[in-house]
Amino acid sequence: MHKLVGWTMTLLVVIATAVAFAPRPHPEFPAPVTRPDRLLVNGVALAGPRWVVAGELGRILYSDDRGGHWREAVVAPQRAATFTQLRFVDDRVGLALGHDGWIVRTEDGGAHWTEVHFDAERAEPLLDLAVLDAQSLRATGAFGRLLRSDDGGRHWRAADAGLGDLHLYGVAALDARTLVVVGEQGFVSRSDDGGEHWAPVAPFYRGSLFGVLKLSATEMLAFGMKGSVYRSADAGRHWQAVASPTTAALYGGTVLRDGRVVLVGQGGVVLVSRDGGSRFEAWPSAPGSLAAVAGGADDHLLLAGERGAEWRPLRADRP
Known about the structure:
Layout: H1 2-21, E1 41-47, E2 50-55, E3 60-63, E4 71-72, E5 74-76, E6 83-88, E7 94-98, E8 103-106, E9 112-117, E10 126-131, E11 137-141, E12 146-149, E13 157-158, E14 168-173, E15 179-183, E16 188-191, E17 199-200, E18 209-214, E19 220-224, E20 229-232, E21 240-242, E22 250-255, E23 261-265, E24 270-273, E25 281-283, E26 290-295, E27 300-305, E28 308-313
């Protein structure tokens, strides 16, 4: 009887051991969900039908189904510095820039990014990027910083253009040679030779201007503190104030394919113009302050800021 019990226990141990170490399929866990609404987003862009957003901790996300699902882009090396702006040259080539002079570049529409510039010794952020043509790019930043690339963003070098040490918040190109930069204390300057030389514009506003947009071959829009909006009809040489329905600071803007102009900013304010920036109307605000906006061909806006990225439809009976 004792022998039978002993053999039985031995058999049970053998079976248990075999079961414990036998190969078995791994348990299926749900795939991690990437949520742009939990990320501080400072830059948004369209790469063909793809939406791309960039923000804090060096993160870039993209969606191929109108925001239904988001994927984390590969950024190498990952510096974890905050991105401040995102621009695409075409549907494949784009650049994101941010703190520590960090610039990364993609050639596959935003899925993979490679570092092309980093300056740990100068921790000041880069703040905006202008595309003159497929090869000529100019980046501006804090304390008068100006970088240039003449090979499509693969390599960058500092450009001493005598712009002083004011923060240069925005830059826009009208064509392959004409640039306008805006910054703090109402600073505005123009270049007619691709950024080699600059001529300051006569002061017309004493507050900071946070961005500038190209409206047409000769028309531009600048915006900034206290809801201030200014319009130029002569390539940035002279500017006129535009009535604004808000006193909130305006941080970002875009021109939609149908010509409507959208500005966003503090407190989730959204302003829309139907007449090329001559008049603006307020749209229902978004939660949290907004830093950037982009618009697609599918009658949607992508609003981005401290609460991440939010989709919003553009209906015919609304702005």
